[in-house]
Amino acid sequence: MADSPREGRLARYPDFTQLTDMASESVGGKVLFATDDFFAPAENLIKSDSPSFREHEYTEFGKWMDGWETRRKRIPGHDWCVVKLGIQGVIRGFDVDISYFMGDYAPRMSIQAANLEEDKQPAIPQRGVRTGAAATPEEFEAVAELKSDDWNYLVPMTELKPGKPASSHNYFPVNSQQRWSHVRLNIFPDGGIARLRVYGTGQKDWTATDPKEPFDLVAIAHGGACVGYSNAHFGHPNNMIGVGKAKSMADGWETARRLDRPPVLECDENGILLVAGCEWAVFRLAHPGVITQIEIDTTHFKGNSPDSCKLDGCILTTQDEEDMIKQKWELLGQKWKPLLPVTKLSANKSHLFDSLTLELQDVITHARLTISPDGGVSRLRLKGFPSSICLLRPREKPMMRFSVKAGFRANL
């Protein structure tokens, strides 16, 4: 995820890059098919790390490249590949990264997408080691059942623009509210692409949820999203609601050290630090519901975890949310209801708490995590039960406002 753009400056990164890469191998993304993988396999497209370059390294087939690179085509047609998204949902934008492919990047590309039912997908042969190979007739026959030629175009044929050798991104916003499960990347006619990032939010089929089992209502894979925060100096709050366990500190939310801390720290009778400042992040739940269990995980944050935290919830309509974003979440205190009182945290540990709403049974649409005075949290899980009450109307166009600046602070 990239830093949010500052006002008065040309945005280096679009807002949608703060969302999850739904195609990444780290969330279960998978390459199903590629017409050709001669110089480098299509699996490199969905690596979670940034592309790299090894100047003097070669394979038996040619220059080692960290991306997908096909041979120079000498037959009719063009190259393409199919990726099954690890998180199925609404796509907000693409990053087609051609870093290090300065002399052999694909000059043009397009992207198509489809939403395929899990039980109706054909069996496609496992790819195995692909370098030096092209798709077999059997693989072409199997992938033809996907009918990917007919998939919707989210990005029409477009020329790719090289930038700096080590950072050459081509961004494409998407204005669609539809749910997608697969994408097809077409390159014209051949060449190399370092990474394909598919940014968006998950979309859950709530009718298939077991009503007796608590469900993580804030998970980004199900449609949860951070809609405001006070500080994200080292990591965006959306990381906290990501897929699986955090892999490192980089996979969590971490703020800068607050400069208004007292010169000498003191604690109250409960061992809570006496500090005036705090940091916070507000989340829109994937579905309105009742939170019954809270997990706050500080794994990997061994010398920089928060001293304490609290969690509050409220009900907001879409208009309320839009107004609060404009007001930088200066929401009147009485709208927030406590889900977890001020609670001491430990470093590098997963904490499980029962929500106060076990007795109150309050439905909420938004949750606010407040940490004191600062620090990092790797994961936030809010388990509970979805409610039939839904105050958030379907959006006519993508809501992509991350207007709270990384350096903005407020004490809520």
TrEMBL record:
Signal peptide interval: none
Biological processes annotated in GO: allantoin catabolic process
Superkingdom of this protein's organism: Eukaryota
Gene Ontology molecular functions: allantoicase activity
Domain Allantoicase as annotated: residue spans: 28-201, 223-385
Family to which the UniProt record says this protein belongs: Belongs to the allantoicase family.
HAMAP family on file: Allantoicase
Function: The function of this enzyme is unclear as allantoicase activity is not known to exist in mammals.
Name the UniProt record assigns to this protein: Probable inactive allantoicase
Taxonomic lineage of the native organism: Eukaryota, Metazoa, Chordata, Craniata, Vertebrata
